Amino acid sequence: MEASEGVAFVGQSRAEIYAFTERVLVAQQYAAVGKKERGSVRRYLSKMTGLSLPQVARLIAKYRKSGKVEAESYRRHSFAAQYTDGDIALLAEVDRAHERLSGPATRRILERECQEFGKQDFQRLAGISVSHLYNLRRSLRYRRQAAVFELTRPTPVSIAERRKPDPRTVSVSKHGLQLISRVIL
User: Fold this and answer.
1) Where along the chain do its domains lie?
2) Which residue blocks in 7-77 are alpha helix, DSSP H?
3) How far apart are CA 15 and CA 71, in angstroms?
4) Which residues pair with residue 172 across a beta bridge?
5) Confidence (pTM)
6) Cβ(41)–Cβ(30) under 8 Å?
7) Contact 13, 51 (CB under 8 A)
8) Computed from CA positions of residues 95, 97, 102, 107, in that sequence, does the dihedral angle turn out positive or negative?
9) Distances in Å between the alpha carbon of 78 and those of 47, 74, 94, 132?
């Protein structure tokens, strides 16, 4: 190990490094050797794989615990969906009918639909929080169902109308003072 200080070895992939580490630990009978030999194996693995000593120690801990050195698959934590596609469609329908009111007003409508009018379709939506209502409105499923397209309305005032100025108009200066222009005869 001391003679190869200038030489560095690095594994190509994580799977290759883990497999090499496991082979070395099995071949050297890591669990049965003394403390001095374990340190040598650790340094050897660090040198050959390019991993730091703490990283090698974690791999060895995996090996001692399970007898294998394998990468753990990553599983992102996700919460169970509380509101179904039908609930989102119902929310979109209510928003279209009421022209998309504010969150608290919409929540109250959903609550009343369930409690006062006895509509069981609104059972889950009756207890929704206002913040989660806005989260549902931002979801892709909601936006696809609630899309309302309106034609562009024409402007009632023509923008580039040319006409002679009226001298009797009142204008306001930038200081808020009213200036009245007078007609000189």
Assistant:
1) 14-66, 85-145
2) 14-27, 35-49, 53-66
3) 7
4) 178
5) 0.45
6) yes
7) no
8) negative
9) 39, 12, 28, 16
Helix and strand tally (H, E) in the chain? 7, 2
Token couple for 144: 């696809």
Instruction: Give kind and range of the element (H or E) at residue 96.
Output: helix 85-97
pLDDT tens string 3-55: 556 666 666 788 888 888 999 998 988 888 888 888 989 998 888 888 899 99
Cα Rg, the chain, nearest whole Å: 37
CA angle 75, 79, 81 (to 5 degrees): 125
Q: What is the rounded distance in angstroms from the CA atom of residue 184 to the CA atom of residue 169?
A: 14
Q: How far is CA 150 from CA 26, 147, 153, in A?
A: 71, 10, 8
3-state class (DSSP) for residue 86: helix
Three-class SS state of 48: helix
